[in-house]
Amino acid sequence: MINRNFSLLLTGQLVSQIGDKFHMIALSFYVLKTTGSSTRMGAVLAASLIPSLVLGFFSGAFIDRYNRKAIIVGTDLIRGVIIGIFALLFYFEAMNFYVILLMQVLLSVNAAFFDPAVPAIIPRIVEEKDLAAANSGHQFVSGFSTIAGAFLGGIMVSAFGYFWVFVMNAASFIFSAGFECFIQIPPVPGKEKIEKQQRLWEDMRQGYRYILSRQELVVLLFMVLVIHFFVGSIEVILPVMADTVSLEGARTLGFFQTAFGLGTLIMAVFLSIRTISGREKASLFSSVFIIGLLFLGTGMVNPGEMISFYLFMIFLFGCCIICAGISFRTLLQKGVDNAFAGRVFAVAGSIGNAAIPSAMIIYGVLLERYSFQGLLMVSGLVLMLLSMVSFVLYKEKKFGRTEKILSKPGT
Questions:
Q1: Out of 66, 144, 243, 325, which residue is the most buried by the measure of CB atoms under 10 Å away?
Q2: How large is the average pLDDT for residues 326-330?
């Protein structure tokens, strides 16, 4: 742990994220079991994503204007109360599909404010030299929560039933808010000046001006789009790949996903020990280039080859994805004026959230017509080209201070 404040933040994240994985597994199975409709299950999952995706383009101005600690504590408390009410409705058999949809929408709205606030807070409680290690630790918690929550969630539902899983998730958000209450966050320089000068909608406009006026920042957000898009593509390709290379496709898919998860966890641990601080640019663009090579190499191999080869390539893919993700987040935190961090990370989150389902739809259609090997090879070449072009366009430097932005005419 880097310091007390970061430890409190990370501990709260660990508790709430594991509880959230329990909740989503229980909710998905409950909807599928009670309605018998995979379409309705998909609608529930969409309701947990779409509001956050849309609001992310606007919530950043709110995060930058108001107290970020109050935002993360308040949204965790609200989510705990929402799920607590949901658990009570379930207990008294007052639950129906539309109540579930409403709950997921409300949770997603809260996530639109909580999720960008966390990376905006980290540079205020962690020294610049420790940012890469902090992001690695944060990514490890996220990856560990996904794997542990998915593994334990099914066991908890079987052992205790849906009601107690919902209660545990509500409690996890309350505990998380409790840890966050003790975090001490220094004030953001220049924030008071922004609050006095303009209204919320003007903050939004100024945030987009800040983003679009900086080529380096546009390049980083483009890399966010690229990375998430190809993560979405591999999510669709893996089941087809597993079914093609093995007679036991379902079991092989499980192995593939485990290899990917292990790659993300091991790389997150490695980067928290051996920091990439000062080398984030090289780490970002080389990771994306290597992902392209992995796509290309995997596509060129005969599907009759040993499954162990595919497991190894998927493991490396997971390693590179985490390395790229930690690198671009650290570059944003180091370069962006923290008074604009909420707006930048909210936009980055919405871009990423939109890219993954878009890729799933596009690659789902393409796989109906083309082999996964061909798509992997073409995708690999595109990724390599994009990484090289972006590397040339990106010039590593500080993006400017709030005072300079505010001094421009018309701002």
A1: 325
A2: 92
Nearest CA-CA partner of 230 in 311, 298, 177, 132:
298
Say which range, 13-17, 33-37, 118-122, has the weakest mean pLDDT. 33-37
Q: How far is CA 390 from CA 11, 210, 283, 288, 354, in A?
A: 36, 20, 13, 10, 21
- Asked if 53 contacts 353 with a C-beta cutoff of 8 angstroms, the reply is yes
Tell how many helices (H) and how many strands (E) occur in the chain: 16, 0
- CB distance 105 to 45 below 8 Å: no
Domain span at residue 281 reads 205-403
Rounded to an integer, the average pLDDT of 207-218 is 90
What DSSP state is assigned to residue 186?
P
Amino acid present at 290: I
In a domain, 409, yes or no: no
Contact 280, 334 (CB under 8 A): yes
- Nearest Cα neighbor of 310 from 360, 376, 366, 361 is 376
Q: Is residue 192 part of a domain?
A: no
Sequence-separated (6 or more) residues with CB below 8 Å from residue 282: none
Residue finishing a domain among 183, 213, 234:
183
The answer to whether residues 173 and 211 belong to one domain is no
Q: What is the pLDDT of residue 198?
A: 62
Helix axes 68-91, 162-180, angle to 10 degrees: 160
Contacts of 189 (CB under 8 A, 6+ apart): 338, 339, 402
Which of the pair, 409 or 292, is modelled with greater confidence?
Answer: 292
Beta-carbon contacts of 132 under 8 Å, excluding residues fewer than 6 positions away, are: 271, 275, 276, 277, 280, 326, 327, 330
329's tokens: 């987040």
pLDDT of residue 404: 39
Q: Strand, helix or coil at 214?
A: coil
Last residue of one domain, picked from the residues 183, 215, 231: 183
Domain count, the chain: 2
User: In terms of domains, do 140 and 257 share one?
Assistant: no
Q: Are residues 86 and 50 in the same domain?
A: yes
Q: What mean pLDDT comes out for the span 186-212?
A: 74
Instruction: Supply the CATH number for residue 90's domain.
Output: 1.20.1250.20
Helix (H, G, I), strand (E, B) or coil at 131: helix
User: Per this entry, what is the length of the chain?
Assistant: 411
What's at 193, amino acid-wise?
K
C-alpha to C-alpha distance for 125 and 397, rounded to whole angstroms: 22
Which helix (H) or strand (E) segment holds residue 212: the answer is helix 200-212
